[in-house]
Design goal:
2 copies of one chain form a homodimer. The first copy, chain A, is about 35% helix and about 25% strand. By secondary structure, chain A is of the alpha/beta class. Chain A has a 9-stranded mixed β-sheet with strand order 5-4-1-8-9-10-11-12-13, sandwiched between helices. A 4-stranded mixed β-sheet of chain A has the order 3-2-6-7. In chain A, α1 packs parallel to α8. The interface between A and B is large, with 40 and 40 residues.
Chain lengths: ~300, ~300
């Protein structure tokens, strides 16, 4: 009954106005699985190089994260170098070394092929569709993340895989590029026509908008005095959101709203420190307390 | 027990991707009073020219809006011409004719000087302070709107009037410019040090963030499929927000949250048609229904 996640595991060099770090653990599958595994067992399919060693494996140890689909190949791991300006809204990519990720062809271990929940992290949509085809039974839901590189450069392949997808998680610019529609309600109708019935629009410091057949919802980002590093916020959100949904085993609008808050809470921890550092350290008690604070903040009693 | 509003009454020429209109009723005090008067009696102090005639007066008739402070002077009314691009986020000013507004020196009618609630619309902070000084007793609260023109060009005068203000309503760029601080929680601390204990940050299509000594809140904008004209959205929000607060007679955090939703609901009506058109027509039933829909949308039950 696990949540299967396919994506990247990487080393990141990060520069923000508040400091810099080199070769910290990164990649969508890292943030996603560390976040989702707080709520539900996760299976990871990704590729790393020979530079991925005991220090990195240790981060995932003692958590319900199955790494039997994490393949180690000769060569170096995916390595990304990025920087942020003072407003932390957009990453500037300084260097991208795909390394072993260049030839990533996800192959699902036998035991992963019947997982009921599937998250397709941001990789080539041709590979995303191939993963779906490897499943021996249709998962209860398939969720997908993508980016403008694929929306603009591989539109047909992306449309093909989106026909198999139930939940689309993208940022605001991406959903507008995908649908050629500025208004988000209208964009949602077009997304539904392509396939996904549930749309999650990530809006950075403005929070998240959720579109479902039963209604819509918007959550602010949890307000923080110190945001150090936004890297991984989106994948951490996806992990909390889909981990919560997997644990709940349902996708009605009340559950989806609660999952949205949960994802936002998890993302708020990630951005308070560099890389996965805070996500590794945060306790169950911290998560519960912040979830309660978040619920209280957005509750309106005076009407 | 009225809510006293000082601001502008104008004619606007509006161009959006969806059409254009000439000489529609505009100005901060128009949107504000039409919105606030749905909840509480309003007194208006503003200036118009000889071109302001029966058609314009009629818009305010039959509503609890006291126009005895609306002075009609020889000359033409304030006239603004602006246009919006496809994303409707920022107005481009094409022409500004201050006309009689150039020499506006608000003079409060005797009956207005003891009003318990005071809204200082976006005018020269020297005039805003002068209005405060004309009050025979300290209002229960004073609310203020301003803009970058005054923040950058009249900082000392603005700081002086802000010392008398309880509730500051500004947009995101304005609060950052005022406090020289990007992070909104830190910006709020600086605002508190200047004077206002309550900060409302208007974020356009991203909604509103509310900062109070008892806690913070964020409301999304009500999601609409058709946004025709964002002109007046901020002043309409302020009207709904402060009208609700005046009617409630208190400013605890629960009341402030409910006021925020109310302001957002009113603004959502304004942007659906040109100028004040929808704000004039909307019924009490429409307002109640949308408020209910908004409350349901943001309520989270699944946690």
């Amino acid at each position: 009954m696990s949540l299967l996640a396919v994506g990247s595991v990487a080393f990141d060099d990060l520069e923000t106005p508040f400091g810099k770090r080199e070769r910290v653990l990164g990649g969508s599958a890292s943030y996603f699985s560390l976040s989702a595994s707080r709520f539900h067992p996760v299976q990871v399919v990704a590729v790393v190089g020979e530079d991925f060693g005991p220090d990195q494996y240790r981060v995932f140890e003692g958590r319900p994260i199955d790494l039997s689909g994490l393949v180690r190949k000769p060569g170096q791991s995916f390595h990304w170098k990025g920087s942020y300006g003072f407003d932390l809204n957009e990453a500037r990519t300084l260097e991208t070394h795909l390394n072993v990720f260049q030839d990533f062809h996800p192959e699902l271990p036998e035991a992963f092929r019947s997982s009921p929940y599937l998250f397709l992290g941001n990789i080539d949509p041709v590979l995303q569709l191939d993963v779906v085809k490897q499943m021996t039974q249709r998962p209860r839901w398939v969720a997908l993340d993508t980016m403008n590189f694929w929306i603009n450069g591989a539109r047909e392949a992306l449309q093909a895989v989106l026909g198999e997808v139930d939940i689309l998680l993208v940022n605001e610019g991406e959903v507008r590029a995908l649908t050629q529609e500025h208004n988000l309600l209208k964009a949602y109708r077009k997304v539904q026509a392509i396939g996904p019935k549930i749309l999650v629009v990530k809006r950075g410091e403005y929070g998240v908008s959720l579109f479902t057949p039963e209604g819509i919802f918007a959550a602010p980002a949890f307000p923080l005095e110190d945001v150090f590093d936004p890297t991984g916020a989106g994948d951490t959100f996806a992990g909390g959101f889909l981990g919560f949904l997997s644990a709940a085993g349902k996708t009605d609008v009340d559950t989806l709203k609660a999952a949205t808050i949960t994802g936002a809470v998890m993302a708020s921890f990630t951005v308070e420190k560099f890389g996965t550092q805070n996500l590794e350290m945060v306790t169950e008690h911290d998560i519960k307390e912040r979830t309660k604070a978040f619920s209280n903040m957005i509750r309106v009693d005076g009407l």
